Amino acid sequence: MTVRIDEAHVFRIIEENRPKTIVLNAPGGLLKQTKELMATVKERYGVNCILAGDSCFGICDTVDNDVETLQADLALHIGHNATVREVGRHTFLVDAVDDVDFDEVVDSAMAKLAPFRKIGLATFSQHLHQLAPVKARLERNGFEVTVGKGNNLMMEGQIFGCDFSTTFPIRDGVDAFCMLGESEFHAVGLALATDKPTFMLDPYLNEVIDMKEAAEERRKRAILTVYKALDARVFGVITGLKEGQKMLGRSRWISKRLEMHGREVVELALRDITAERLAPHREIQAFVQTACPRISIDGFTFDRPVLSIPQADALVALLEGREIGEFLQRPKWIELTVGLMKKK
Ligand code: SF4
Question: What's this model's pTM, rounded to 2 decimal places?
Answer without folding.
Answer: 0.95
